[in-house]
Design brief:
This protein is α/β, with parallel strands linked by helices. Helix content is about 25%, strand content about 25%. It has 14 helices and 32 strands.
Amino acid sequence: MKATFISADAAARLVKNGDTVCTVGMTLISAAESILKAIEARFLAENTPRDLTLVHAAGQSDRQRGNQHFAHPGLVTRIIGSHWGLAPRWMAMINNDEVEAWCLPQGQMVHLYSAMAAGLPGRLSQVGLGTFVDPRIEGGRMNRRTREQPNRVEHHTFRGEEFLFYPAIPLDVVIVRGTHADEDGNLTTDEEAMKLEVLPAVLAAKRYGATVLAQVKYRVARGSLHPKSVTVPGTLIDAIVVCDEPETDHRQTSGWAFDPSLCGDIRLPVSESAPLPLSLRKLIGRIACRYLTPGCVINLGTGIPNDVIGAVIHEEGIGDAVTITVESGIYGGLQAGGTDFGIGRNLTAMISHQDQMLYYNGAGVDITFMGAGEMDPNGHVNATRLGASCPGAGGFIDITQNARHVVFCSSFTAKGLEIACENGELRIVQEGEVCKFVNAVDQISYNGELARQKGQTMHYVTERAVFELRPEGPVLVEIAPGIDLERDVLAQMAFRPLIASDLTVMDSALFEEAPCGLAAALARHASSDQQGNDK
């Protein structure tokens, strides 16, 4: 069957007023820029298509491109997604009530595509219970305009247990991206930096008779693709756009037009890169890394965890002792950060976004390191709506709810905080203006009460203090050397926390530029475990 190759403008004309459009990508990885830009250009020139519902599992922007092309009042009237932290125009539209906005857990959305593809009415899951996604709290609504709408998520009891039901979302158009398309339309994703959920989204489209549009970098001859390399069979794709300007519109990531090491085609020599300077973020990452155990599988969330913890692990020489994973599906290697979250070089494995979320939701990782914005006396944590910023959940809820140990990484205060590490001690040069330990979080992204009920281990790590979630609530268990408990900790909190009777002072080595001894600590841990097994 001969494939239909069309222009980006022709692809844009296949999107009709009122359509529900699903796009696949993460950050700028796999963003079909040629098609997205053409849809935006048609709307701005002709005021059509209008009133779209945009559905997307992961955040899909680098602050400028990606699904921000759809961020125009009138073009989209409803957005159902998980994350907008790198999409400032979307956050502004949500805050200004210019769009109906629903935030659902990223993993539940990619799994919902599979349920939809299978002809099921939706997905039943315990992920989201007790958080803002729960219809008994906010139901995933992100602004006033959305609060006027009926529930999109349902609460049910099944076989004596509580669940949330995520109903199917009928699709009209699905937009994906690949590397090659042959003359039969068979699509590979060989040069993509992530595998993502391309096939499940396409199969969901077929269930509803939706139009599948694909953007590719290369058009190749029939029979030239190895069948095992084909991500989507051509019979499932309706039209293909070959990108005219891959340097700008088919970039492998925001930071790189193409780097073969990011898709695993080559491995780069391991070099002795300069260690990160001892900044606020690195200090928080160092303190958090003390919870690593030999052989543990860890997850790195966006922000401080992904940007510094991997670097600390490699600097301390313990990369072979732990397995690093990221929600995009990557294992091991050296992770990129910032707008290129979710990719890495010299990976040991890369699985699909959907399969990675199955692992996180089912078995759960040993330790997840996550960013955080607020914590209250119940141990509730907010990372999804902070004042005028509404980044959303991404994979936060899926991963933190099921991990064995959750380590939140956060500065103690925000907006203007400056520190100095001197002679093995911490000094607060300038206090932040924003209090992050509040009487009630603005939005429940992590439910401390439910975590205590199931006995989950949780630590909330900052540069000057560490809290541990215990049956009685968050307990202050450590402070940094050089910190005054009353002035620098308690006076900067809206509530007075429980304080451990054996409150300790952190090791001064954490506050020195030299490696802080994580390798030796892991070796001692391994030796202790072995002695315990020998008894």
